User: Which sequence fits this backbone?
């Protein structure tokens, strides 16, 4: 069964910490995405990557960075976590182009 | 501008009722793709269907059916004989050929099916 795996289901971090959220897909997909989901705001794209070492900003990249050193792994980095980054973070991948996304189960991050 | 509107924020039905979730989209492109996803309480979004703009045939999959109408820019989703397991948030999304990696999402419709 094809999968997108996010390393943590729940995380609690302190303000100012550097936070790494990891995502791994086993489907040889070209594209990978990081979203955050907040009540009433839907899914908002933070960053995406269409190839190794390639990345593009999404709609809300401020306060985040990403890394894709290998095709199967896409990391989201919160350089200095803040309380307004408390959210559900969803990773997704797609084969290429117009194919649909496969999502991970999400990481609920709380910044205290 | 590309946009997806799901006007129904929350719907509550009793089991075995039929329910239709509305999705209206905006795009200037002639080539685009429409999607529906389901997000159950567990949180993981599950892909349901992808439809391209050149295929206006309605689709049926078990109790699920989709009605695509370009004339009204709508891609509605109907669940027949709803079940408690259908309780979830359902998202409609749009991808257009000019930017064929990113999805534009509606805000979702929360469906509660009560026994």
Assistant:
């Amino acid at each position: 069964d094809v999968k997108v795996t996010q390393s943590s289901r729940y995380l609690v971090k302190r303000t100012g910490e550097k936070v790494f959220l990891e995502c791994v897909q086993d489907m040889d997909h070209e594209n990978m995405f990081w979203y955050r989901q907040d009540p009433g705001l839907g899914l908002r794209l933070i960053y995406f990557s269409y190839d190794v070492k390639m990345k593009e900003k999404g709609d809300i990249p401020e306060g985040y960075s990403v890394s894709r050193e290998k095709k199967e792994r896409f990391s989201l980095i919160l350089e200095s976590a803040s309380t307004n980054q408390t959210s559900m973070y969803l990773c997704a991948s797609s084969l290429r182009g117009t194919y649909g996304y496969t999502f991970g189960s999400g990481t609920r991050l709380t910044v205290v | 501008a590309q946009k997806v509107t799901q006007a129904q924020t929350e719907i509550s039905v009793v089991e075995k009722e039929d329910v239709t979730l509305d999705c209206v989209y905006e795009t200037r492109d002639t080539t685009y793709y429409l999607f529906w996803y389901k997000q159950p309480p567990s949180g993981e979004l599950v892909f349901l269907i992808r439809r391209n703009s050149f295929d206006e045939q309605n689709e049926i999959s078990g109790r699920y059916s989709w009605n695509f109408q370009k004339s009204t820019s709508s891609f509605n989703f109907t669940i027949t004989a709803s079940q408690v397991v259908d309780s979830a948030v359902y998202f409609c999304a749009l991808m257009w050929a000019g930017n064929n990696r990113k999805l534009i999402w509606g805000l979702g419709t929360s469906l509660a099916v009560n026994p």
